[in-house]
Write a structure and sequence with these properties.
Elements: H1 2-12, H2 19-26, H3 30-33, H4 40-63, H5 68-85, H6 87-91, H7 104-120, H8 130-149, H9 159-176
Helix pairs in contact: 1-4, 4-5, 4-7, 5-7, 5-8, 5-9, 7-8, 8-9
Length: 177
């Protein structure tokens, strides 16, 4: 049911996802959903955890065997592709705080963070700067992908060329730290 909710969020937009709409999609009555989830908030959290887990799989798989700029490019492209393919479920992840260490959101978040840390191991970043580098990487990937998914690039420059330019820019910056 969570996967169906995530797919529906991708289709209609996360903010338009409701228990009633999901029940209609599944061909059941809304009260039947409460056998599986505790309500809209629970469904949203489960979709968020699923999305972060899927993003972690995509980024983690993409960076294996690569280092430096190649790993950076692979991670950024995988993250961007995930957001563009799954805009609704990715939107579910924004602002969700884990409730504890064993919360599925926390577990998936650690996996995604580990994938981005693997990218940064290819650069000489001092440990005190690692959090800053991770935030920069997340901001670049998140910002570009969500702007693109929302139709935010309306001018004539090729979007893929701009994205590669962004990767090169980040690579130069990470090597300069």
């Amino acid at each position: 049911m969570v996967a169906a909710g995530a797919a529906l969020a991708d289709e209609v937009g996360f903010t338009r996802l409701t228990m009633g709409l999901l029940a209609e999609r599944l061909g059941v009555r809304t009260p039947s959903l409460y056998k599986h989830v505790g309500g809209q908030d629970d469904l949203n959290r489960r979709i968020a955890a699923l999305a972060v887990s899927e993003a972690a799989d995509a980024v983690g798989g993409a960076v294996q065997g690569y280092a430096g700029r190649d790993a950076l490019g692979a991670a950024a492209r995988a993250f961007r592709a995930f957001v563009l393919e799954h805009p609704g479920r990715y939107a579910a992840t924004i602002g969700v705080e884990p409730t504890g260490r064993d919360d599925p959101m926390a577990v998936a978040g650690r996996r995604l963070l580990a994938a981005f840390k693997a990218v940064l191991r290819g650069y000489e970043i001092a440990e005190p700067d690692m959090d800053h580098a991770l935030r920069m990487l997340r901001s670049l990937c998140h910002g570009f992908a969500t702007l693109q998914a929302g139709g935010g690039f309306q001018w004539s420059a090729d979007i893929d060329e701009s994205f590669e330019w962004l990767i090169d820019f980040a690579d130069r910056g990470l090597r300069a730290v």
